# Entry
Amino acid sequence: ITFYDDIFSVNKKRVIELCDAIVAAGLHKKCSFAVQTRADNLYEEILPAMQRANFKNIGLGMETGVERIAREVKKDQTV
# Structure
């Protein structure tokens, strides 16, 4: 099961509660989980809970390193 959510890990408490619920329901024994989220919202404190819940993959979205492309996609950033 994959979660595609840019703000999945923003609320650390919510992630830990979700992982605890997955374990309590025994879902971690029946399937594995993955998440696609932003690198700047991934916190070390949630990783042990995600491991217990059988999260096998964490995909991280990265911004471009090319300022011209950032402007084209209207990202408010500079390189």
